[in-house]
Amino acid sequence: LELGAGSGALAKSMLIAFDEMGILPNRYLILEPSASLQNLQKEQLAAQLPEALFALLEWVTELPQHIVGVIIANEVIDALPVEVIRIYPNNSEQAFVVWSEEKQQFDWDWQTLIDPELQRIANQLHNYLGTHLSDTGYTTEVSPFLLPWLTSLADSLAQGSILLLDYGYSRKEYWSPQRRMGTLRAYYRQRVHQDVFWQVGLQDLTTSVDFTSVAEAGHRAGLTLAGFTTQANFLLSLGLLDLVDPQADVVTQLKIAQQIKTLTLPDEMGETFKAMAFLKGVEGALTGFSMRDLRFQL
Q: With bands split at pLDDT 50, 70 and 90, how would you rate the model's confidence at 93?
């Protein structure tokens, strides 16, 4: 079951890889509530996949129950709604969205933090930062939907694994003093900026993922943390380099080599993107974390 399918590129890559390894699943589900996006994905995948592979695809609009298999969430957590909080040496605030008549646009309204759970996290962050916390404050994000979301996945999974792929950090990095402005940002036409109230509805909002919080939420949801590593380590452990066919022409080899660099180099996606897996009802080590498992960093 794939969550956050986008254009269907992941489904295409997964099915082709499964086919080459001779381990095709009985079916490949894509969870997409939007009928228009379903049609777009079907159109693109029908044109890109062999008929036998396309026949394995099935679209659903809600989480199936009693899944025996694998749930894949590629860049889903970063899109979950967040609360924005700001911590000062002597108090904490929470950001609310209001309409500014003066600016004629949406704006932040900072109010004293009173939510007990957010205050608990603010206290934890306050103690963590210590002397690094200044009068200018420290802004960060908290996802209140992380635990309910993971719990819903755990409840749907009868036996198998949940694989999460996203960009983010362990908490030590996420709460770094250098990250005092938070990680909330906007993307518009492949360009990133900080004005989240510009072009409302036309740009994507995102935050980096605190993978320590994900691990904690998974534990509370009854899942077993099976591994955590960088995307580079994960893909190389799975044999990414084997995709380079020594018999292919030079142009094809160079194209694949460039794609591998993009996925694995530290200054590209290799270190920023992380892979985390949970298990339920099964035991054993997962190959993707055999090169370097970074669970100790959480």
A: very high
Q: In the 8-state DSSP scheme, what is residue 180?
A: T
> What are the counts of helices (DSSP H) followed by strands (DSSP E) for the chain?
9, 15
Given a contact cutoff of 8 angstroms between Cβ atoms, the answer to whether 53 and 22 are in contact is no
Sign of the C-alpha dihedral, residues 264, 286, 241, 291? positive
With a cut of 80, say whether residue 131 has pLDDT above it. yes
Distance (Å, rounded) from C-alpha 165 to C-alpha 226? 14
Report d(CA 127, CA 121) in Å as an integer.
10
Residue in the structure block whose two tokens are 């099935």: 58
- Structural contact between residues 180 and 188, judged by C-beta atoms closer than 8 angstroms: no
pLDDT in tens, 189-204: 889 999 999 989 899 9
Give 69-88 as a 3 state SS string. EEEEEECCHHHCCCEEEEEC
Question: How many CB atoms lie under 10 A from the CB of residue 93?
Answer: 19
Q: CA 284 to CA 177: how far, in whole Å?
A: 37
Alpha-carbon distance values, 192 to 145, 176, 197, 203, 284 (Å): 24, 21, 13, 10, 40
Listed residue (39, 30, 27) closest to 5, CA to CA: 30
Share of the chain above pLDDT 70, in %: 100
- pTM here? 0.91
